[in-house]
Structures are given as structure tokens and as C-alpha cells.
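Give me the fold.
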Amino acid sequence: MTEAFYDVLRRRRDVRAEFTGEPIPGDVLTRVLEAAHSAPSVGLTQPWDFVLVPDRGTREAFREHVLAEREVFADSLDEDRAAVFDRIKIEGILESSLGVVVTYDPARGAPDVLGRHAIADAGLYSVCLAIQNLWLAATAEGLGVGWVSFYREDFLRGLLGIPDAVRPVAWLCVGPVSRLHETPDLERHGWRFRRPLAAATHLGRFGEHAGVHNLCPTEPEGTSTH
């Protein structure tokens, strides 16, 4: 069971071109959404909602907006970087079986949100945990997920009737896939490469790097209980 869990973590990918378009069985979708809804949240506010978008017309309108935003980003790149970006597919909006928009309502549980008084974004972080749960559950079920972030929040609010005070955090493309690549798309296309764990691990103070084998401080001499 432990190895199966870590296998899901390793196989999870941000999917674009591999969606088959086949329908998601209802029981599978329910399990995936239940996994997302079971995520931890600050003050037990569960500040997320899930807007399911099966309608092709709505998805076409969203895709048109996303492609326009893609051009905005492409125009900001130098020639070499733009050439790399040109090869990268950024969405699978129409290829996927379903769009799932995950929102954040900061008013849920307010004004007395336990644990948010010092960290205002704790509720937003909670929504990201729900997204991660959804993503991992989908991977375990043989589905792919692709997070689309090339959009303006006001556009998506208007498209889906989301209240002004609620933030659309993610449009997730979800559905069966033909495969999950061993290597993430951005790495395969040479856009960016993953950092080693050692570069992201600090011991005691930021900037003090340590190997994984040094993560747990050793006992001072003479204090061993063995």
C-alpha cells in the first residue's frame, strides 16, 4: 500500500495532449471529488467549491480566452524563449472529458476563521490542498488532470456566474488519458528542469543546505539511550 501511494505521487503529471475524451464514470468522479473535499482546511472552513463544466460551448469560449492570453505571454518572450514556448501545449480544454473549476470563498467561516488571523492566505492554501487531493485521486483512478492558468479571473467569473467575492483558483481539465509521460512536459521541451532535493533542503537556517541523510540532527555525545 505504501509503495502504491508513492507510485501515484511519481506518476502524477500536468496533462495536455493525452486526453482521450472518453466519459468519466460517475462513481469515479464522485470518489475524486470526495478526495478533494476531504482535504485539510484552515479553521475547518472548507472554502472551496467545484464547478463542473461539461458543456462544449462554454469550454470553447474559455479556450478562446486562454489562447488569447497565451499570445500575451508569448509576446513578452525573447526570440529563443518564444521558440521553445511555441512547442508547448498549455491546455487540453476541449480534449478532456470535463472542466472542473475550483474556487475560493474567503468569507466562508468569517470573520472568526481559526488560524487565519496571522496568515491571510491560509484559506487559499487550503484550496490548493483540495486541488492536490483531487489530482492524486484522479491519477490513482487512471485519469489525467491539467491545470490551466492562462486566464483572467474576471473573465472566468463572468463565464460561469461566479460571485465577485469568490476567486476562481483553477480550471482543471479532467478525463481518461492514453498515457502519462515519464518526464513532465516542460522538462521534455527544455523550458525548465527539476531541482534536486538537496538544492531545496535547508538545515536550521535558510541557505544552510544539507543532504537528505543529514536532515535529522544527531544526538549529542553521551545522550544516547541505546
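The longest helix spans residues 56-75.
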